[in-house]
Write a structure and sequence with these properties.
mainly beta; Jelly Rolls; 17-stranded mixed β-sheet; 17 strands
């Protein structure tokens, strides 16, 4: 009995240590940025559950352990909800929660990567794209390379979710609200430039 308990305790400690291992590093900070309510610094190691906020002119660039990179723009609130690196034949499994603001991502191939917002879920395998949540919680998604699937978040039980909207370089953007996502369409050059300028500098 004691041996079994010891084995279980050892396994739990290994799992806890793996869960607490850093999954990302802060590579650059511009302007005001906070980690769990404290000032954020370059070189900080982030674990699952880390919550980041940027000020009105803040920018942060993260590098994840799989080589993926994320830029958090101004006035944004982001949490690393889940990150399981590829191991033992299992692919990477990552989820970010974007409550407000704008993030740009360059996702390394090799597993699942989701960005959840109050009104949408964006899923990719390996691509470059941006997700923005406005003050009214509407979600805008734009893809630069590759392909992403965007699905409206269902808040009503018993109602089946609508099929995802597929984005690629030909029909590269969509807008989602609580009622669903618009059909994919080509965004104007100016709209894309505006997004890119908010992600520049880091």
């Amino acid at each position: 009995m004691k041996r079994a308990l010891g084995t279980l305790l050892g396994l739990w400690m290994i799992a806890a240590a793996a869960q607490a291992a850093p999954v990302a590093e802060v590579m650059a900070v511009l302007g005001e940025a906070q980690l769990d309510g404290k000032p954020l610094a370059v070189g900080a190691k982030l674990e699952v559950g880390a919550e980041l906020r940027t000020g009105a002119k803040g920018r942060v660039r993260l590098r994840f352990v799989d080589g993926s990179s994320v830029v958090i723009s101004d006035a944004s609130r982001v949490r690393i909800q889940q990150f399981e690196p590829a191991a033992d034949g299992k692919p990477r499994n990552a989820t970010l929660w974007l409550e407000l603001g704008l993030i740009g991502q360059k996702v390394a191939p090799g597993g699942g990567w989701e960005v959840r917002t109050p009104t949408a879920v964006t899923a990719v395998r390996g691509t470059e794209f941006v997700v923005e949540v406005a003050g009214d919680q509407a979600t805008a998604v734009h893809v630069q390379t590759g392909q992403v699937a965007v699905q409206a978040s269902s808040r009503t039980r018993g109602i089946l979710p609508k099929p995802p909207v597929m984005l690629d370089t030909q029909a590269d953007g969509t807008q989602c609200s609580a009622s669903g996502c618009e059909a994919s369409k080509r965004w104007s050059d100016q709209r894309v430039l505006d997004l890119q300028s908010r992600l520049a500098g880091v």
